[in-house]
Amino acid sequence: MKHSLLPFVLAAVFGLSNCSEPIKTKPAETEAKKEPAGPPQPVTAKTAFWAIYKPARAWATDLQPVSVTSGEVPGIKNEAGKAGLWTIVFVSPTLHQARTYYYSVADGLPVVVKGIKLVRTAPWSGPTADVVPIQTSEFSIDSDAAYNTASAKAGNWIKKHPDKQVSFVLGNASRFPSPVWYVLWGTTKSGFEVFVNATQGTVFK
């Protein structure tokens, strides 16, 4: 495909400048041994999105996402639409601000720490042709489903380039009727890209 979301991706990223009381046991009782926690696993975009959404909404109740981007954490293998790191940019029309957060399943010191982190707050002047806020109701297709759809389209290319990594960006632009997943194997100069409708799950031609 010759189309690219790179301008909108750059605009979105750079243009925006349970606790419960423990059960008490009798002295004669022994506690069951807990199974050791397994290694951190990559997660889908929606898992990260909803984890970040609650603290982000405390900042602005009118917040809207403009981009969701996959990333990598050393020691965590991204696969099948799941990633160890997701970066999300929210904007607030009333505050005229944008906030960038990330969600990581593991530490990637010294830059990345496990959990949710507010990266920065920046001024936001409003939508542009390349960066249009996303309604959460339009974000129906998760990254793993987008991967399945895109990989079916890119099947022949993937077989010839099995070592190429895949990355994901969810965004919206005026030239699209709805938000899209931009799924890219390799790089924009040497790779294969697929646009997946994030509301319906179909491939954009």
Question: Could you please describe the fold and organization of this structure?
Answer:
With 205 residues, this protein is α+β, with helices and mostly antiparallel strands. It has one domain. The protein has 4 helices and 7 strands. It has helices spanning 6-14, 45-59, 143-153, 155-160; strands at 64-71, 85-92, 97-104, 115-123, 166-171, 180-186, 191-197. The protein has a 7-stranded antiparallel beta sheet, sandwiched between helices. Strand 2 (85-92) and strand 3 (97-104) form a beta hairpin. The longest helix is centred in the N-terminal third of the chain and has 15 residues, at 45-59. It is globular, with a radius of gyration of 19 Å. The protein starts with 5 loop residues before the first helix and ends in an 8-residue tail after the last strand.
The largest sheet is:
7 strands, antiparallel
Average per-residue pLDDT, rounded, comes to 85
Tertiary shape: globular
Q: State the strand order across the main sheet.
A: 4-3-2-1-5-6-7
Structural class call reads: alpha+beta
**Fraction of helical residues:** 10-25%
Number of strands: 7
Order of helices and strands: HHEEEEHHEEE
Terminal-residue CA separation: 8 Å
Query: What value does the Rg take, in angstroms?
Result: 19 Å
Give the percentage of residues in beta strands: 25-35%
